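Exercise 7b. C-alpha coordinates:
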Protein backbone atom coordinates (compact mmCIF):
# COMPACT_ATOMS: atom_id res chain seq x y z
CA UNK A 1 0.00 0.00 0.00
CA UNK A 2 1.23 3.51 -0.74
CA UNK A 3 0.74 6.41 1.70
CA UNK A 4 -2.59 7.61 0.35
CA UNK A 5 -3.98 4.06 0.38
CA UNK A 6 -2.82 3.67 3.99
CA UNK A 7 -4.51 6.99 4.83
CA UNK A 8 -7.86 6.06 3.26
CA UNK A 9 -7.77 2.60 4.80
CA UNK A 10 -6.93 4.00 8.26
CA UNK A 11 -9.60 6.74 8.17
CA UNK A 12 -12.19 4.09 7.35
CA UNK A 13 -11.00 1.82 10.15
CA UNK A 14 -11.07 4.65 12.75
CA UNK A 15 -14.53 5.67 11.59
CA UNK A 16 -15.93 2.17 11.98
CA UNK A 17 -14.31 1.41 15.31
CA UNK A 18 -16.62 1.04 18.30
CA UNK A 19 -14.59 -0.37 21.17
CA UNK A 20 -11.56 0.79 23.09
CA UNK A 21 -10.04 -2.64 22.51
CA UNK A 22 -10.28 -2.36 18.70
CA UNK A 23 -8.77 1.11 18.88
CA UNK A 24 -5.79 -0.17 20.85
CA UNK A 25 -5.30 -2.90 18.23
CA UNK A 26 -5.42 -0.36 15.41
CA UNK A 27 -2.87 1.86 17.14
CA UNK A 28 -0.51 -1.09 17.46
CA UNK A 29 -1.11 -1.91 13.80
CA UNK A 30 -0.23 1.65 12.73
CA UNK A 31 2.30 2.95 15.25
CA UNK A 32 3.65 -0.16 17.08
CA UNK A 33 7.20 -1.49 16.78
CA UNK A 34 6.25 -3.53 13.73
CA UNK A 35 3.47 -1.12 12.73
CA UNK A 36 2.79 0.05 9.18
CA UNK A 37 3.95 3.64 9.68
CA UNK A 38 6.93 2.56 11.77
CA UNK A 39 7.89 0.25 8.90
CA UNK A 40 7.68 3.10 6.38
CA UNK A 41 9.87 5.28 8.59
CA UNK A 42 12.45 2.53 8.80
CA UNK A 43 12.33 2.15 4.98
CA UNK A 44 13.41 5.79 4.54
CA UNK A 45 17.03 4.85 4.85
CA UNK A 46 16.80 2.86 1.61
CA UNK A 47 15.62 5.88 -0.42
CA UNK A 48 17.93 8.05 -2.45
CA UNK A 49 19.05 10.99 -0.27
CA UNK A 50 17.24 13.67 -2.34
CA UNK A 51 13.85 11.95 -1.76
CA UNK A 52 14.33 11.41 1.98
CA UNK A 53 13.20 14.87 3.30
CA UNK A 54 9.99 14.92 1.24
CA UNK A 55 9.08 11.27 1.96
CA UNK A 56 9.92 11.67 5.66
CA UNK A 57 7.68 14.76 5.88
CA UNK A 58 4.75 13.00 4.18
CA UNK A 59 4.99 9.95 6.45
CA UNK A 60 5.26 12.15 9.52
CA UNK A 61 2.29 14.33 8.48
CA UNK A 62 0.18 11.20 8.07
CA UNK A 63 1.37 9.87 11.45
CA UNK A 64 0.41 13.14 13.21
CA UNK A 65 -2.99 13.23 11.46
CA UNK A 66 -3.84 9.62 12.30
CA UNK A 67 -2.65 9.93 15.91
CA UNK A 68 -4.86 12.99 16.34
CA UNK A 69 -7.86 11.13 14.97
CA UNK A 70 -7.14 8.14 17.20
CA UNK A 71 -7.00 10.41 20.25
CA UNK A 72 -10.30 12.01 19.33
CA UNK A 73 -11.86 8.60 18.85
CA UNK A 74 -10.54 7.48 22.20
CA UNK A 75 -12.26 10.35 23.98
CA UNK A 76 -15.49 9.63 22.15
CA UNK A 77 -15.39 5.93 23.04
CA UNK A 78 -14.63 6.76 26.66
CA UNK A 79 -17.61 9.10 26.88
CA UNK A 80 -19.86 6.47 25.32
CA UNK A 81 -18.66 3.87 27.81
CA UNK A 82 -19.54 6.14 30.77
CA UNK A 83 -22.91 6.96 29.30
CA UNK A 84 -23.68 3.32 28.80
CA UNK A 85 -22.74 2.37 32.32
CA UNK A 86 -24.93 5.16 33.74
CA UNK A 87 -27.87 4.13 31.60
CA UNK A 88 -27.58 0.50 32.58
CA UNK A 89 -27.66 1.39 36.31
CA UNK A 90 -30.73 3.60 36.27
CA UNK A 91 -33.11 3.04 39.22
CA UNK A 92 -36.68 4.17 38.72
CA UNK A 93 -37.50 5.93 41.98
CA UNK A 94 -41.07 6.61 40.93
CA UNK A 95 -41.99 2.96 40.66
CA UNK A 96 -44.69 1.84 43.13
CA UNK A 97 -44.11 -1.07 45.50
CA UNK A 98 -47.49 -2.64 46.16
CA UNK A 99 -46.35 -4.45 49.33
CA UNK A 100 -45.03 -1.31 51.00
CA UNK A 101 -46.49 -1.23 54.53
CA UNK A 102 -47.25 2.22 55.91
CA UNK A 103 -47.86 2.58 59.62
CA UNK A 104 -50.69 4.52 61.21
CA UNK A 105 -51.73 5.78 64.61
CA UNK A 106 -53.23 3.38 67.14
CA UNK A 107 -57.07 3.55 67.14
CA UNK A 108 -57.09 5.14 70.61
CA UNK A 109 -54.66 7.79 69.41
CA UNK A 110 -56.76 8.39 66.31
CA UNK A 111 -59.74 9.06 68.59
CA UNK A 112 -57.67 11.28 70.88
CA UNK A 113 -56.48 13.30 67.89
CA UNK A 114 -60.00 13.71 66.52
CA UNK A 115 -61.39 14.87 69.86
CA UNK A 116 -58.44 17.22 70.34
CA UNK A 117 -59.01 18.62 66.86
CA UNK A 118 -62.64 19.39 67.77
CA UNK A 119 -61.93 21.07 71.09
CA UNK A 120 -58.85 22.99 69.97
CA UNK A 121 -60.93 24.23 67.04
CA UNK A 122 -63.38 25.54 69.64
CA UNK A 123 -60.76 27.47 71.58
CA UNK A 124 -59.69 24.95 74.22
CA UNK A 125 -56.03 24.62 75.18
CA UNK A 126 -54.41 21.20 75.63
CA UNK A 127 -53.01 20.77 79.15
CA UNK A 128 -50.69 17.98 80.23
CA UNK A 129 -50.93 16.83 83.85
CA UNK A 130 -48.82 14.24 85.73
CA UNK A 131 -49.74 10.54 85.84
CA UNK A 132 -48.20 10.16 89.29
CA UNK A 133 -50.18 12.35 91.65
CA UNK A 134 -50.61 13.21 95.28
CA UNK A 135 -53.80 12.33 97.12
CA UNK A 136 -54.56 16.05 97.22
CA UNK A 137 -54.88 16.56 93.43
CA UNK A 138 -56.57 13.26 92.69
CA UNK A 139 -59.06 13.38 95.59
CA UNK A 140 -59.01 16.07 98.26
CA UNK A 141 -59.00 19.12 96.00
CA UNK A 142 -61.79 17.45 94.02
CA UNK A 143 -63.95 17.46 97.13
CA UNK A 144 -63.13 13.90 98.16
CA UNK A 145 -61.69 14.10 101.70
CA UNK A 146 -60.00 11.06 103.30
CA UNK A 147 -62.53 8.37 104.21
CA UNK A 148 -65.12 9.83 101.84
CA UNK A 149 -67.23 6.96 100.41
CA UNK A 150 -66.66 8.33 96.85
CA UNK A 151 -63.12 6.94 97.03
CA UNK A 152 -64.64 3.51 96.56
CA UNK A 153 -65.90 4.57 93.10
CA UNK A 154 -62.32 4.22 91.88
CA UNK A 155 -60.06 1.43 93.07
CA UNK A 156 -56.74 3.22 93.42
CA UNK A 157 -53.12 2.10 92.97
CA UNK A 158 -51.31 3.73 95.89
CA UNK A 159 -47.53 4.13 95.78
CA UNK A 160 -47.33 5.52 99.32
CA UNK A 161 -50.11 6.71 101.63
CA UNK A 162 -49.97 10.04 99.89
CA UNK A 163 -48.75 9.27 96.36
CA UNK A 164 -50.78 7.38 93.79
CA UNK A 165 -51.33 6.75 90.08
CA UNK A 166 -54.06 9.19 89.07
CA UNK A 167 -57.43 7.49 88.73
CA UNK A 168 -58.87 10.34 86.64
CA UNK A 169 -57.66 13.25 84.54
CA UNK A 170 -59.80 15.48 86.81
CA UNK A 171 -56.60 16.16 88.75
CA UNK A 172 -55.60 18.27 85.73
CA UNK A 173 -58.53 20.62 86.50
CA UNK A 174 -57.02 21.51 89.86
CA UNK A 175 -53.49 21.97 88.53
CA UNK A 176 -54.78 24.24 85.76
CA UNK A 177 -56.95 26.35 88.07
CA UNK A 178 -54.10 26.77 90.55
CA UNK A 179 -51.79 27.94 87.79
CA UNK A 180 -53.98 30.15 85.58
CA UNK A 181 -56.66 32.73 86.16
CA UNK A 182 -60.10 32.41 84.58
CA UNK A 183 -61.51 32.55 81.96
CA UNK A 184 -60.25 29.03 81.23
CA UNK A 185 -60.97 26.54 78.49
CA UNK A 186 -58.90 23.37 78.47
CA UNK A 187 -58.80 19.71 77.67
CA UNK A 188 -56.46 17.34 79.45
CA UNK A 189 -55.97 14.00 77.69
CA UNK A 190 -53.92 11.21 79.23
CA UNK A 191 -53.53 7.82 80.84
CA UNK A 192 -55.33 6.94 84.06
CA UNK A 193 -55.03 3.89 86.32
CA UNK A 194 -57.48 1.80 88.31
CA UNK A 195 -57.27 -1.62 89.87
CA UNK A 196 -59.91 -2.99 87.50
CA UNK A 197 -59.59 -5.79 84.99
CA UNK A 198 -62.29 -7.37 82.83
CA UNK A 199 -63.42 -7.33 79.19
CA UNK A 200 -64.47 -3.67 79.29
CA UNK A 201 -61.99 -2.44 81.94
CA UNK A 202 -58.23 -2.29 81.76
CA UNK A 203 -56.01 -1.20 84.68
CA UNK A 204 -54.58 1.45 82.36
CA UNK A 205 -56.93 3.45 80.19
CA UNK A 206 -57.32 6.91 78.67
CA UNK A 207 -59.48 9.88 79.50
CA UNK A 208 -59.90 13.37 78.20
CA UNK A 209 -60.90 15.95 80.75
CA UNK A 210 -62.63 19.15 79.72
CA UNK A 211 -62.93 22.29 81.81
CA UNK A 212 -64.50 25.67 81.08
CA UNK A 213 -64.49 28.45 83.68
CA UNK A 214 -65.98 31.87 83.00
CA UNK A 215 -68.62 34.28 84.18
CA UNK A 216 -72.21 33.13 83.55
CA UNK A 217 -71.43 29.60 82.42
CA UNK A 218 -74.52 27.38 82.73
CA UNK A 219 -75.61 23.79 82.26
CA UNK A 220 -76.94 24.87 78.84
CA UNK A 221 -73.39 25.76 77.80
CA UNK A 222 -72.28 22.30 78.87
CA UNK A 223 -75.05 20.72 76.82
CA UNK A 224 -74.20 22.84 73.78
CA UNK A 225 -70.51 21.97 74.01
CA UNK A 226 -71.17 18.25 74.35
CA UNK A 227 -73.80 18.22 71.62
CA UNK A 228 -71.32 19.76 69.16
CA UNK A 229 -68.71 17.24 70.20
CA UNK A 230 -71.13 14.27 69.87
CA UNK A 231 -72.19 15.37 66.38
CA UNK A 232 -68.55 15.76 65.33
CA UNK A 233 -67.65 12.26 66.48
CA UNK A 234 -70.81 10.25 65.83
CA UNK A 235 -72.50 12.19 63.01
CA UNK A 236 -74.74 15.23 62.46
CA UNK A 237 -77.99 13.44 63.32
CA UNK A 238 -76.73 12.48 66.80
CA UNK A 239 -78.75 13.70 69.81
CA UNK A 240 -77.59 13.72 73.42
CA UNK A 241 -79.40 13.37 76.75
CA UNK A 242 -78.45 14.11 80.33
CA UNK A 243 -79.24 11.75 83.20
CA UNK A 244 -78.77 12.83 86.81
CA UNK A 245 -75.64 11.39 88.39
CA UNK A 246 -73.16 12.00 91.17
CA UNK A 247 -69.57 13.17 91.20
CA UNK A 248 -68.14 14.87 94.30
CA UNK A 249 -66.50 17.62 92.21
CA UNK A 250 -69.53 18.63 90.14
CA UNK A 251 -72.95 19.86 91.24
CA UNK A 252 -75.25 19.09 89.57
CA UNK A 253 -73.65 16.05 87.95
CA UNK A 254 -74.84 14.27 84.83
CA UNK A 255 -74.20 11.14 82.87
CA UNK A 256 -74.31 11.85 79.14
CA UNK A 257 -75.78 9.49 76.53
CA UNK A 258 -75.71 9.82 72.74
CA UNK A 259 -78.40 8.42 70.46
CA UNK A 260 -77.11 5.19 68.92
CA UNK A 261 -75.21 5.99 65.69
CA UNK A 262 -75.82 2.44 64.53
CA UNK A 263 -79.62 2.04 64.81
CA UNK A 264 -80.55 5.73 65.40
CA UNK A 265 -82.64 4.81 68.42
CA UNK A 266 -84.61 1.74 67.39
CA UNK A 267 -82.39 -0.62 69.39
CA UNK A 268 -79.48 -2.83 68.37
CA UNK A 269 -76.47 -4.70 69.75
CA UNK A 270 -74.25 -1.62 69.95
CA UNK A 271 -76.69 0.19 72.30
CA UNK A 272 -77.89 -3.01 73.99
CA UNK A 273 -81.40 -2.32 72.65
CA UNK A 274 -81.80 0.95 74.52
CA UNK A 275 -81.25 3.33 71.59
CA UNK A 276 -78.72 5.25 73.74
CA UNK A 277 -75.01 4.88 74.48
CA UNK A 278 -73.40 6.29 77.61
CA UNK A 279 -70.26 8.20 76.69
CA UNK A 280 -69.17 10.42 79.56
CA UNK A 281 -69.66 12.02 82.97
CA UNK A 282 -69.96 15.75 83.44
CA UNK A 283 -71.40 18.53 85.53
CA UNK A 284 -71.09 22.07 86.85
CA UNK A 285 -67.87 22.54 88.79
CA UNK A 286 -68.62 22.32 92.53
CA UNK A 287 -68.29 25.65 94.40
CA UNK A 288 -65.99 24.01 96.91
CA UNK A 289 -63.58 22.98 94.15
CA UNK A 290 -63.50 26.52 92.73
CA UNK A 291 -62.88 28.21 96.08
CA UNK A 292 -60.25 25.61 96.97
CA UNK A 293 -58.35 26.79 93.88
CA UNK A 294 -58.74 30.45 94.80
CA UNK A 295 -61.53 31.19 92.33
CA UNK A 296 -64.55 33.09 93.66
CA UNK A 297 -67.58 30.80 93.08
CA UNK A 298 -69.94 33.81 93.19
CA UNK A 299 -68.11 35.44 90.31
CA UNK A 300 -67.12 32.44 88.20
CA UNK A 301 -68.92 29.26 87.21
CA UNK A 302 -67.77 26.39 85.11
CA UNK A 303 -68.48 23.00 83.70
CA UNK A 304 -66.30 19.91 83.49
CA UNK A 305 -66.54 16.63 81.66
CA UNK A 306 -64.50 13.44 81.46
CA UNK A 307 -64.56 11.22 78.36
CA UNK A 308 -63.23 7.68 78.30
CA UNK A 309 -61.16 7.48 75.10
CA UNK A 310 -60.94 3.68 75.15
CA UNK A 311 -64.70 3.51 75.51
CA UNK A 312 -65.32 5.86 72.55
CA UNK A 313 -62.83 3.84 70.47
CA UNK A 314 -64.54 0.56 71.37
CA UNK A 315 -67.93 2.00 70.42
CA UNK A 316 -66.69 3.46 67.12
CA UNK A 317 -64.71 0.35 66.14
CA UNK A 318 -67.35 -2.10 67.45
CA UNK A 319 -64.79 -3.85 69.66
CA UNK A 320 -66.14 -5.76 72.64
CA UNK A 321 -62.89 -6.65 74.37
CA UNK A 322 -60.63 -3.84 75.60
CA UNK A 323 -57.64 -6.25 75.67
CA UNK A 324 -57.53 -6.21 71.86
CA UNK A 325 -56.40 -2.61 72.03
CA UNK A 326 -53.51 -3.44 74.31
CA UNK A 327 -52.24 -6.60 72.64
CA UNK A 328 -51.23 -4.56 69.57
CA UNK A 329 -51.54 -7.46 67.16
CA UNK A 330 -50.82 -5.75 63.82
CA UNK A 331 -53.59 -7.76 62.14
CA UNK A 332 -56.03 -6.13 64.53
CA UNK A 333 -54.47 -2.65 64.28
CA UNK A 334 -54.48 -2.69 60.46
CA UNK A 335 -58.26 -3.02 60.54
CA UNK A 336 -58.40 0.59 61.76
CA UNK A 337 -56.29 2.56 59.31
N1 LIG B 1 -63.53 11.98 86.58
C1 LIG B 1 -64.79 11.32 86.35
C2 LIG B 1 -64.55 9.82 86.20
O1 LIG B 1 -63.43 9.43 85.98
C3 LIG B 1 -65.47 11.87 85.12
C4 LIG B 1 -65.88 13.29 85.26
C5 LIG B 1 -65.04 14.30 84.87
C6 LIG B 1 -67.12 13.63 85.75
C7 LIG B 1 -65.42 15.62 84.98
C8 LIG B 1 -67.53 14.92 85.87
C9 LIG B 1 -66.67 15.91 85.47
O2 LIG B 1 -65.45 9.05 86.28
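Sequence design result:
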Amino acid sequence: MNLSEIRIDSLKKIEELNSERDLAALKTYLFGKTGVLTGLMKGLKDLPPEQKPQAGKEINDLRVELMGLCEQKEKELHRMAIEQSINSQVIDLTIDRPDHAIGHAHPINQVRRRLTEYFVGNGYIVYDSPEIETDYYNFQALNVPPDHPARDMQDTFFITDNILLRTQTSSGQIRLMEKYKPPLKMICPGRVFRNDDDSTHSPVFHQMEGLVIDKNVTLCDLKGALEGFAKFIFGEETRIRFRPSYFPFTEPSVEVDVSCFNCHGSGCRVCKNTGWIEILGAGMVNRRVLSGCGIDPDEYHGFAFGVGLDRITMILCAINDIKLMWENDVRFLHMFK
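Instructor comment: The pocket of phenylalanine is lined by residues 168, 170, 247, 250, 281-283, 304-306 (CB under 6 Å). The chain has a mean pLDDT of 92.
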